[in-house]
Write a structure and sequence with these properties.
20 strands; about 30% helix; Dipeptide-binding Protein, domain 1; Dipeptide-binding Protein, domain 3; alpha+beta; 4-stranded antiparallel sheet; 4-stranded mixed sheet; about 550 residues
Length: about 550
């Protein structure tokens, strides 16, 4: 919201903003907020329910409230959380988790193994309709039968006793512990939720985390308060405020005026900030295991069924130009890396010599003509979709469509959709051509290659299908104890799909954030900021 300040003399405004003190925390903005950590969500909150959430912004908010058996640490390793340890059976299919005693929900009740079984059963109920459960739970023995109404429970989830839970997978699954970090495995409190209905208000958000849900004004603000009884000790801050602010300019201005303590920034703002003595040292960069790509839906847009058309599109897009003109910032530190593979750095199996398709306009024209569309003539109308709330994403989408027009004569417009609407269409395979991000849920090639691009991959929204590719992924997904051979299989698969070009890598995510100097104790993994159990504020 914009304050009605037109009647205030400009000189007074300057004084108010410049006299901010340490960490640009203005006196006006700090009233009653000195121990409140404030940073925005850049789009609508997609769900208050861990079993429904699909986006990183919302996951970051919910991870303060809910927890699972395991978690990521600062070294980006899976470590114990509510479970103090686990054992894996000799066949690699059964994981028996031993729960810590005395872990309590926010309502004071102790967490037992039965609560985890309830959580997993709830989101496998076909009436619940979780978009994410099939992606992260299908490997559990009996999940698919439960989802298909052929069983009343998941046979692979067993309560051994109050403090032991056994989960059995349908096949050896070398990435299973990574799956268990995902929100689908975060425990919910049975008496607070309705089994087959989504969590929609803060009273139902009863977790075990370091913060309790306090209030939620839809499309405006989510507030969390410190859980003073948290088993790891009460957080050092009293409150977290997550205002929903879609406009990047508004986010930046609110940070400058001391109304925010942290915010992501767009590349177009970096140069100005880096020259500003007040803010330059507060600009921070974080490379993430996340890929921004162009998706070509092989069913929604008929020409994309033709491999020559897809390859022509890939050859006509110059990622280096995109990065240099839009995503470079003002230094090597700020520049987003060009993507030449599907797997980002830090993901197991990343290679610098993947068989990506190089920029080659002459060859692209030949392939498009061979497919029957010389100079783009005859191609049906085409739209590239992208999400709202991120100027960089919009600018890249426009740059790519401009390149396609300049290099191949293709007429392609761009269309921005609200994030929730975008996700809905994406889930329904209705986006014919789009620019978006896939961020690692766990650092295994299966999370990109199999989940996103195999025929049966639960996140395959482009309807790409290649039996040879599927076979390589399926073998790699179950290979335990031989990482060398497993990575060879994935490398073959990655090269194959890069050459087929249904999925064109553009750049690797490098977050640019402004972090106030009053913020201390942020913990990081490659995935992002970890729950704020150690954050303190000056």
């Amino acid at each position: 919201m914009r304050r009605a300040s037109h009647f205030i003399p400009a000189a007074l405004i300057v004084v108010a903003l410049v006299g901010c003190g340490k960490g640009n925390f203005s006196q006006k903005a700090s009233e009653g907020k000195s121990n409140t950590f404030r940073y925005p969500i850049t789009s609508e909150i997609t769900s208050l329910d861990p079993a429904k959430v699909q986006d990183g912004d919302t996951i970051d908010a919910l991870q303060q409230v809910f927890e699972g058996l395991v978690k990521w640490d600062e070294n980006s390793k899976v470590v114990p959380n509510i479970a103090e340890k686990w054992e894996i059976s000799p066949d690699g299919k059964t994981y028996t988790f031993t729960l810590n005693k005395g872990v309590k929900f926010h309502n004071g009740r102790e967490v037992k193994a039965a609560d985890f079984k309830y959580t997993l059963e709830r989101e496998s109920d076909p009436s619940f309709s979780s978009e994410t459960a099939p992606s992260y739970m299908s490997v559990i023995d009996g999940f698919k039968e439960r989802l298909a109404k052929k069983a009343t429970e998941i046979r692979g989830v067993k309560v051994v006793d109050d403090y032991h839970l056994a989960i059995t997978t349908i096949k050896p699954c070398p990435y299973f512990l990574g799956l268990v970090t995902y929100p689908n495995y975060w425990v919910v409190c049975k008496e607070a939720v309705e089994t087959v209905k989504e969590i929609t208000n803060v009273k139902q958000m009863v977790g075990t985390g370091a913060y309790k849900a306090d209030s939620y004004q839809e499309r405006q603000l989510l507030t969390l308060v410190s859980n003073k009884d948290y088993r790891g000790g009460a957080p050092k801050i009293d409150k977290i405020e997550r205002p929903i602010i879609k406009d990047p300019v508004t986010r930046l201005n609110k940070f400058k005026s001391g109304e925010l303590d942290l915010t992501r920034i767009e590349r177009q703002d970096i140069e100005g900030l880096s020259k500003d003595a007040k803010f330059k040292d507060q600009v921070k960069y974080f490379e993430r295991p996340a890929l921004y790509y162009v998706g070509l839906n092989c069913k929604a847009y008929a020409p994309f069924k033709d491999r020559n058309v897809r390859r022509a599109f890939a050859m006509a897009i110059n990622p280096l130009k995109v990065v240099d003109t839009i995503l470079s910032g003002d230094s090597a530190d700020s520049k987003c890396p060009v993507a030449k593979s599907i797997l980002p750095p830090s993901v197991f199996g990343f290679r610098t010599n993947a068989a990506f398709i190089p920029f080659d306009v002459a060859q692209a024209k030949k392939l498009l003509a061979a497919a029957g569309y010389p100079d783009g003539k005859g191609l049906p109308a085409l739209t590239m979709y992208h999400r709202d709330g991120q100027t960089d994403v919009e600018r890249v989408a426009v740059a790519i469509t401009t390149q396609l027009h300049e290099n191949l004569g293709i007429e392609c417009q761009t269309k921005m959709l609200p994030w929730g609407q975008y996700l809905d269409k994406h889930n329904k395979h209705q986006l014919e051509f789009f620019h978006m991000r896939w961020a690692a849920d766990y650092l295994d090639p299966q999370n990109f290659l199999s989940l996103l691009l195999s025929t049966t991959g639960a996140e395959n929204r482009i309807d790409y299908s290649n039996p040879a590719y599927d076979a390589l992924c399926a073998k790699g997904d179950t290979m335990v104890g031989n990482d060398v051979e497993r990575l060879k299989l994935y490398a073959q698969a990655e090269d194959m799909v890069l050459q087929d070009a249904p999925f064109i890598p553009v750049y690797i995510e490098k977050d640019a954030e402004l972090i106030s100097s009053r913020v201390h104790g942020l913990r990081e993994s490659v995935f992002g900021h970890l729950p704020h159990t150690t954050v303190s504020l000056e």
